[in-house]
Amino acid sequence: MVYNNYNVLKGRKIIIKLKGGLGNQMFQYAFHIFLISKNCNAKFRISKNPNNFHNGIELEKAFGITLPRTTIIELFKLKIDSFLLKFFQASLFFNRIIESDDNCESTQIIDEISKNKNNYLDGYFQNESFFKPVKENILSIFKFESQLSKKQRKTYNMIQSTNSISLHVRRGDYSNHKWRYGKIASLEYYKKSIKYIRERVKDPVFFVFSDELEWCKKNLHYSSLFFVDCTDCNNSYHDMYLMSQCKHNIIANSTFSWWAAYLNPNEEKHIIRPNKFVNLDSLHPKNEIYIHNWINIK
User: Fold this and answer.
1) pTM of structure
2) SS3 96
3) CA separation (Å) from 292 to 11, 33, 268, 286, 288?
4) How far is CA 199 from CA 77, 164, 204, 221, 227, in A?
5) 87: phi then psi, degrees, rounded to nearest 5
6) 3-state DSSP call for residue 165?
7) Residue 17 and residue 6: Cα distance in Å, rounded?
8) Which of 64, 117, 156, 177 would you call most buried, defined as having the most Cβ atoms within 10 angstroms of its Cβ?
9) pLDDT in tens, 96-118
10) Among residues 137, 139, 146, 138, which one has the least CA distance to residue 62?
11) Cα 120 from chain centroid?
12) Contact of 260 with 207, CB cutoff 8 Å
């Protein structure tokens, strides 16, 4: 379904379940901004369960954002609905829309929202189409409120003064979900990506960002490699900021480096991305998470 008139969304009350790491939180917030622009009353349900987030709720400290939160009454209604769904397969207050393999496109989600006055959304919305109409607004909101340390400032200065390329390697939690994420951004992928950049960018300097830098040091043996180790997990958004300031980006199948590349202001940037995002053909079947002009390396 293609909408020519978004008035069908006007007045809809929407609660979005906030979850995942910073990259996923940014996708959810970007969709929230789009819904607000269409006169929806949209806010977030934020769980106290730390397992729902990688490094906590980073949106607020990274961008100075104040998240609109559900009220106590709304949370009570959601709990009643959870009980009813569990035992009676019915809800009383909110229409639940769960983003799934068969329901992962923006037009499908918007169509579902338009049918009901009150909606509860559970998904990641990893697609530019969920916020593209308000892209410029999103870019203005996602400006980092970054107070860099002395070491980070030194890295930033190096990035600014060279033909810098961020290279993001995500292993960590992906190692526990190899069936879903493994063998996509492989060592061979990074070797091919480095070769591609070297053939097109003069005197490139590769800035390696990773949650397993020791693995990178053992497996990536090239000149002009700089391993970035100036950020801790409590302020991981500093890494995203530094990555976004590089001239070009080699990303992992990760929303974290996706956003770093997306926020990169260089109009002539090369963005290298893996052939797919996940190992399940039913999820992102057309790799719609990636921007059309990003370079696909198999």
Assistant:
1) 0.93
2) strand
3) 33, 23, 15, 11, 8
4) 58, 14, 10, 17, 22
5) -105, -25
6) strand
7) 22
8) 156
9) 999 876 567 888 899 999 999 99
10) 146
11) 20
12) no
